[in-house]
Design brief:
S-adenosylmethionine-dependent methyltransferase activity; SAM-dependent_MTases_sf; alpha/beta; 23% strand; 3-stranded antiparallel sheet; Nicotinamide N-methyltransferase; Methyltransf_16
């Protein structure tokens, strides 16, 4: 099972003075999908909520180190970004995050609302796919159709990879290990991930193994849709693979995200979209509608069971459906959607 790859390392290995993060309570957009809903409406309510142990949407505590057991690359030490320090009183923090008379906002609270301080299951789906595509066929065995399909979908050997909303940047680390020619991990300039977690994960899992691997990975702040900064202008059309894992919870950012994808994608390049349904299906479906309007076509799309596998180890898949009648919240969480995007006409 995918989630069994993770286990927490002893607490002495990470700071103990980091305040606990509230469990995200995402409003299910299928139940209330007002088109003008603000991001604060999605993340404003942190009500008590327990994710099922067998189908978590996120993993780890802020600042915690997790052991990711990779059959291909061995054990990886993944540091979860630290939670931005702020008042212990959530109501005061929300108020502080609202726009002030001069138009400024509390940057600590803005960083918290990015939810980079967890390792999301969608990132693990990308990491597992890339890893399996890089796993050689055992001597004497014949590549199955499923293995061939997986290799065609997820292989990054020789590819230039851009990860958007990287957080802990597990996909970036795995892509470097899988011989991508270049990897860039990006997150919002306010993201706590840029304060050391990504750099730590590159150092512990790449530099200590092979310094050359670490030199292939760069870390860049990037705000979706802002394309006139030095990083954007220097890298237009550079990346042959773009990773977007659980980046779709803010409707207001869908167009900006699509513009960023169009800007950085090289001719013939592909975009991996992986999303859980903790915000509901409607908001994920809305993103697909947006990218199609911005010049993309969906080359491949399906839903994957995050818990169970077939007897031969293959994935359990089903057709992607924007609206699945009668689907309950608990069952919804065990599935994710995986899509491969390309530019129209390519």
């Amino acid at each position: 099972m995918l989630h069994s790859r993770l286990r927490p390392l002893p607490r002495r290995n990470y700071p103990t003075n980091t305040p606990s993060a509230p469990t995200p309570e995402f409003q299910n957009q299928d139940a209330n999908s007002e088109p003008d809903e603000e991001p604060e409406d999605v993340f404003g309510a942190f009500l008590p909520h327990l994710f099922p142990d067998d189908a978590p949407s996120f993993h780890g505590d802020p600042g915690q180190h997790l052991l990711y057991s990779s059959p291909r690359y061995g054990d990886l030490n993944i540091m979860v970004p630290s939670y931005p320090s702020s008042s212990q009183k959530r109501s005061e923090e929300i108020a502080a995050g609202l726009a002030k008379p001069d138009g400024s906002v509390n940057q600590v609270d803005e960083g918290r609302k990015l939810f980079a301080h967890f390792l999301w299951s969608a990132a693990m789906v990308v990491a597992e796919g890339v890893e399996e595509a890089d796993t050689p066929i055992a001597p004497g065995e014949t590549e199955t159709e499923a293995q061939k399909e997986n290799r065609e979908l997820w292989s990054v050997e020789g590819e230039s990879v851009l990860e958007l909303g990287a957080g802990a940047a597990l996909p970036s680390v795995i892509c470097a290990l899988a011989n991508a020619s270049m990897v860039t991990a990006t997150d919002h300039p306010s993201s706590p991930a840029l304060s050391g977690a990504i750099a730590s994960n590159i150092k512990h899992n790449l530099a200590k193994r092979t310094p050359e691997l670490a030199s292939q990975v760069s870390i860049q702040p990037h705000e979706w849709g802002v394309l006139d900064d030095s990083f954007s202008t220097a890298n237009k059309g550079v990346y042959t693979r773009i990773v977007a894992a659980d980046c779709f919870w803010m409707r207001s950012q869908h167009e900006n995200l699509a513009r960023t994808m169009q800007w950085f994608l090289s001719p013939g390049g592909k975009v991996w979209v992986v999303a859980g349904f903790h915000t509901g299906r409607a908001i994920v479906a809305g993103f697909f509608e947006t990218v199609v309007k911005h010049g993309f076509v969906i080359e491949r799309i399906y839903e994957r069971d995050l818990i169970a596998r077939l007897e031969d180890g293959g994935e359990i898949r089903r057709e992607w459906i924007p609206v699945r009648e009668g689907e309950g919240t608990e069952n919804q969480k065990r599935w994710c959607v995986i899509a491969l995007l390309k530019r129209k006409g390519e």
